[in-house]
Specification:
Length: about 350
């Protein structure tokens, strides 16, 4: 998102963070089994299930392309209730393809092979899931958007029995990379990753953006979510065309959010907005955020508290907003003047 009138490129900061978050997959942690302890290398391993070992080999799920899956996550991270779900309702994963790793070249995943470690899983996502998922979505995919491509592998015991099923698919994740509940098919949704109105964002030195309470230190306070699809229904707008529309719209949104133009003036904060460049737009991202920031020396100032609380309710780099000089009353706030007296009729006595 780009802050207009400053050299700060907010969009670059946020997009870098989103790309990083989007690269986090479900891996083995979203396969309907209990997560066990980590080994010395820090790799997650599945806890064994109680299924009898003499059962015939069967895939851990029958889910196929176009179907959706969900599961429950306990407060301690344990996963249960791994099952199919309606894609129209709440789910955590939409299957784009079903792969059989036993047919993989060189016999890498033969009967005695261990499950792939997280590094190999990431490679499999690139090798097997990326193209399949993009084809499944018919090209409607924004890699910097709300969805990420990920694989799901069998639980450890199913793998030991010979199940080499791998599901490729798409999911929405939280800022920690954990799959969250979502509704609707991904190809039918707006793919932009936006922050709810009234929430705040902080960025770190690595350009990672995190959503926080506005009572905590932050850099951006979100004032609105703008849908550009009805504004540009028949074309991909240039960034300049989006800017022209959003400059007015986001200023109006900031005034509405703070309760008037005078409150925005007194806050000393600056309006910012995001844009959707052509690759994101073509990938299905149509929504952007409007927000408030304070830019100082080509950096974000640290805000604390919501600007909706007024000058006494938030700080900028630890201090209240600078007192603003009084202005002449706005035209909209001036009392209407009395109309001038009517002109005398022609020929009338003075």
């Amino acid at each position: 998102m780009a802050f207009k009138g400053s050299s700060i490129s907010i969009r670059a900061l946020l997009c870098a963070a989103l790309v990083g978050a989007g690269g986090m997959g479900a891996y083995a942690g979203a396969t309907g089994f209990e997560l066990g302890a980590k080994d010395e290398a820090g790799t997650n391993h599945a806890a064994p299930t109680n299924a009898p070992k003499d059962e015939p080999i069967a895939p851990f799920t029958t889910a196929d392309k176009g179907e959706c899956l969900t599961w429950n996550v306990a407060p301690d991270g344990q996963i249960s209730g791994f099952e199919k779900a309606s894609c129209a309702g709440e789910h955590r994963f939409e299957v784009s393809s079903r792969e059989d790793l036993s047919t993989y070249p060189i016999g890498e995943f033969g009967p005695d092979a261990p499950p792939p470690n997280p590094t190999r899983q990431a490679q499999l996502r690139e090798e097997l899931c990326q193209a399949q998922t993009k084809n499944y979505l018919e090209g409607r995919y924004d890699p910097a958007g709300r969805y990420s491509i990920a694989p799901i592998l069998p639980p450890a015991q199913a793998w030991e029995k010979g199940d080499r099923t791998m599901l490729c698919g798409i999911q929405e994740t939280d800022q920690n990379g954990a799959p969250i509940l979502t509704t609707g098919r991904a190809a039918e949704q707006d793919q932009a990753r936006v922050t709810p109105v009234g929430r705040c964002i902080i960025t770190d030195e690595a350009n990672t953006a995190s959503e926080v309470e506005c009572s905590e230190v932050h850099h951006i306070e979100i004032t609105s979510i703008e849908d550009l699809a009805p504004v540009f229904p028949d074309r991909t707008p240039t960034v300049e065309q989006q800017d022209e529309y959003l400059q007015k719209r986001c200023t109006a949104a900031a005034e509405e959010f703070l309760g008037g133009e005078e409150n925005l003036y007194q806050s000393t904060l600056q309006v910012y907005w995001g844009t959707s460049p052509q690759p994101a737009w073509d990938g299905g991202s149509r929504r952007v955020n409007c927000g408030l920031i304070f830019a100082r020396d080509n950096r974000f100032a640290a805000l604390k508290g919501s600007a909706t609380a007024g000058r006494e309710g938030f700080t900028i780099d630890g201090k209240p907003p600078a007192k603003q000089p009084e202005r002449r009353p706005l035209r909209s706030e001036q009392r209407p003047q009395d109309p001038p007296p009517p002109a005398p009729e022609e020929g009338a006595a003075p």
